[in-house]
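#structure-requests
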Amino acid sequence: MERIFAEYLIETPYNVEHAAAVLAGEQSSGTFVSVPGETEALKQRFAARVEHIELLDVVDTPSIPGGMIPGKKYQQAKVKVSWSIENFGYNLPVLISTLQGNLYEITQFTGLKLMDLELPDSFKNHYRGPKFGIKGSKASCGVGDRPMIGTIIKPSIGMSVEDTATLVKNLIDAGIDFIKDDELMGAAANSPFDERVKAIMKVIRDNEQQTGKKVMYAFNISDEIDEMQRKYDLIVKEQGSSAMISINSVGLTGTKKICDNGELVIHGHRNGWGMLNRHPLLGIEFPAYQKIQRLAGVDQLHVNGIQNKFWESDDSVVTSIKSCLKPFLGGVKFYQ
C-alpha cells in the first residue's frame, strides 16, 4: 500500500523514540490513552510509522516558552513518519490535518516543524497541479527567453481607479511584463473592484492592440468563495490573464476551487508566511509548503526577494526558489 512520508524537526525533553511514537500514534490510530477499539489489526493497517530518527543538538532551554522542566535537557532531532494512503485517500484538507494537526499541541514537544513531505506518484492522477506555471505565465505576456519583469501597485491602498489606471499605463510604457495588486487592495471606498478591473483592462487591451503585447495584471480576488468566483469571471470577461489570491487567508480549499477553473494564471500571495515559518522550531518550512500549494494548482508563488526588507535570509530565499523548481510527483515539473 502506498504511503505518505513527512519529515519533522522536533525538540523534546523526553526520550526521542518515545516522543516520535506519540506523534505517530496521535496523528493516526491512537490517542493519549489506550482505547478498546485500537486493535492490533487496526494498528497494522492504519497506524503511522516512525521510519527514521536522526539525533541533532542538545540544548538547555526549550525553544517554545512554557515547556521548561527543571533538570531536563532538550534533544533536537529529525524524524521521518509515514502514513498509509488509506488513512485519507486523496483528500487534501484531511492530509494537512494529519501532517499539521494536533501534533503541534502535544506536550512531549518543545519544538516541532514540518520540513518536507513525499507523496506517492498516484497523486498526479487526482491533482492537476499548476496549469500554467512559469512557461504558461511567460507565454501569456509574450516573454521569450528571459525573466518576466514585474512590479506591485504602490501605494498599497488609497489611489483612485483613475490614478491606478494611469500608473498601469506608465508601467506598460516603461516595458513592464507583470503588474499585481497589493494584498491589502481588495475593494476600497474609492476603488471598487469592478470599476478598477474594467479601467485597467482597457489600458491593457489598448496597448495590446497597438503593440501586440498583453501585459499580465494579477487582480486580488481574495474574498468569500462565491465572491471570488464572481470576480474571477469578471476578469475573464474583461480578457484578463491573471488573478491573485492571498492563499493563507482564503485557505487551501478556496485556493484550489479557484485554481480548478483553469482560465487564469493564479498568483499565490503568501502574506502571513512569517506566522507559519519565522520561528526556527515551529510551523512549516517552504519545501513542504510549496508542494501543498502546487497540489492546489497555484501557478506563481511568492518566495520573498534577495536583500529583502523582511527577516528572511538570502540563503533561505534561494532554497525556496530551488524547491519550487524541483520535479514533483514522479518527475512532473509543475514550475517549468
